[in-house]
Specification:
Distance between the termini: 22 Å
Structural class: mainly beta
Number of helices: 1
Strand content: over 45%
Radius of gyration: 11 Å
Helix content: under 10%
Strand order of the largest sheet: 4-3-2-1-5
């Protein structure tokens, strides 16, 4: 199994993604070989914020729920 195939099984779950100097927390929405996408809660009610994170910069991913 690869890192990407394992993460694909967690699409729709809440995750924390740590990259150097930054923490992203939200719902994992997409996994590709070059990026993963996380939907973060927005400070503005009702607006969805999607963050594309390059996979080569990920330190670790923690599955929360």
């Amino acid at each position: 199994m690869t890192f990407f195939s394992i993460l694909t099984g967690f699409i729709g779950r809440t995750v924390e993604v740590v990259v150097p100097n930054t923490l992203f927390e939200g719902t994992l929405t997409k996994v590709e070989t070059t990026i993963i996408q996380v939907q973060e809660p927005s400070p503005i009610y009702g607006v969805l914020q999607f963050v594309n994170i390059p996979t080569n910069s990920i330190d670790y991913v923690r599955i929360l729920a």
